[in-house]
Write a structure and sequence with these properties.
CATH class: Alpha Beta
Strand order of the largest sheet: 3-2-4-1-5-6-7
Number of helices: 14
Structural class: alpha/beta
Low-confidence stretches: 224-287, 291-310
Mean pLDDT: 80
Strand content: 5-15%
Radius of gyration: 22 Å
Number of strands: 7
CATH superfamily: P-loop containing nucleotide triphosphate hydrolases
Number of domains: 1
Largest sheet: 7 strands, parallel
Distance between the termini: 28 Å
CATH architecture: 3-Layer(aba) Sandwich
């Protein structure tokens, strides 16, 4: 049985979203996950109660509740057939509580949002885990998730640069998507939505699953990419280093392709005038519309998604 702790003292960092979608993924693949909810808000327990009998079973333990009629160990007992325990921790957890919360944890996930406040809080959290909870980097138990990111923004680039300074692997980069909100309302995870609705979100879980299990899941790989690879080459499965094209052009403010003609050929405006426009008169540099999958994933109303849930 694998014990996975999702932890960040900062409220609103997406701990519950990561926990419930990880449980959804495991249940959909035939495992028997247990969600242990220590958050007094009880969001994970409420999500489990929304699930239908026809859906893959997930058991929830309301660890935030205290029952004087039973012992604590009995209240937190794990079913014998459980394959994974996913711990959803509360906000504002104190450093002195970290050793008990991370005890016996095989993996510890720290989600962090792309904001200055969240980056500062994450820095302190990682420090407490290393110094107070005595989590060793070489054990490969600690991973960071860049959560609710929007690519090609300065704050996203700042977050990635900061995370690389920690010496902790970035095990996933999860985009800011309404599919997570809609799925939570229905008591499901993005892995249980129709693939054409949430394919981009599903694929982004590939590196995280590889890090947790040690083996890639080919169903999470982008089409045309090797199993375990990250979407658009943005993040290796081992989350080693940030690709240069993801940070340097945005920081410098000048695309790499704009510099090549200056050294090896004539300026772009004199090279091939007929190619300056497409067949429909749109300038060649104009961003193309979203694909049908992306448009559906971003714009489809909640009631339409509910009708298409598998």
């Amino acid at each position: 049985m694998q014990r996975i702790v999702v932890l960040n003292p900062k409220g609103g960092s997406g701990k519950t979203t990561i926990a419930i979608n990880l449980a959804s993924y495991l249940a959909a693949r035939g495992h028997r996950p247990v969600l242990m909810d220590f958050d007094p808000q009880g969001s994970s327990v409420r999500w489990v109660k929304k699930r239908q009998p026809s859906q893959a079973p997930i058991q929830a333990i309301a660890a935030f509740e205290r029952d004087s009629r039973t012992t604590r160990s009995f209240q937190l007992r794990i079913p014998d057939d459980a394959t994974h325990v996913i711990v959803d921790t509360p906000a504002a957890i104190e450093p002195r509580q970290l050793p008990d919360m991370t005890k016996d944890a095989h993996k510890i996930l720290v989600p962090v949002l792309p904001s200055d406040i969240d980056i500062h809080t994450c820095s302190r959290c990682i420090g407490d885990l290393l110094l107070v909870a005595k989590i060793r980097r070489e054990d490969n138990r600690l991973g960071v998730i860049a959560n609710r990111v929007r690519r090609n923004t300065l704050m996203y680039q700042a977050l990635i640069r900061f995370l690389h300074t920690l010496g902790i692997p970035i095990v996933a980069i999860i985009r800011d998507s309404q599919n997570y909100v809609r799925a939570a309302e229905l008591g499901i995870g993005v892995h249980e939505m129709k693939s054409y609705v949430a394919q981009q979100d599903i694929e982004q879980w590939g590196p995280l699953v590889t890090w947790l299990t040690g083996a890639p899941d080919s169903t999470l790989s982008p089409r045309g990419a090797p199993p375990g690879g990250a979407e658009d080459g943005e993040l290796p499965a081992e989350a080693g280093q940030e690709p240069a094209e993801a940070s340097e052009p945005a920081e410098a403010g000048q695309p790499a392709e704009a510099s090549e003609p200056a050294e090896g050929g004539p300026p772009a405006e004199t090279a091939a005038p007929p190619a300056a426009e497409t067949d429909n008169g749109t300038p060649a540099g104009t961003a193309q519309p979203q694909t049908a999958d992306e448009a559906v994933a971003e714009e489809m109303p909640a009631h339409a998604v509910a009708a298409q849930v598998g």
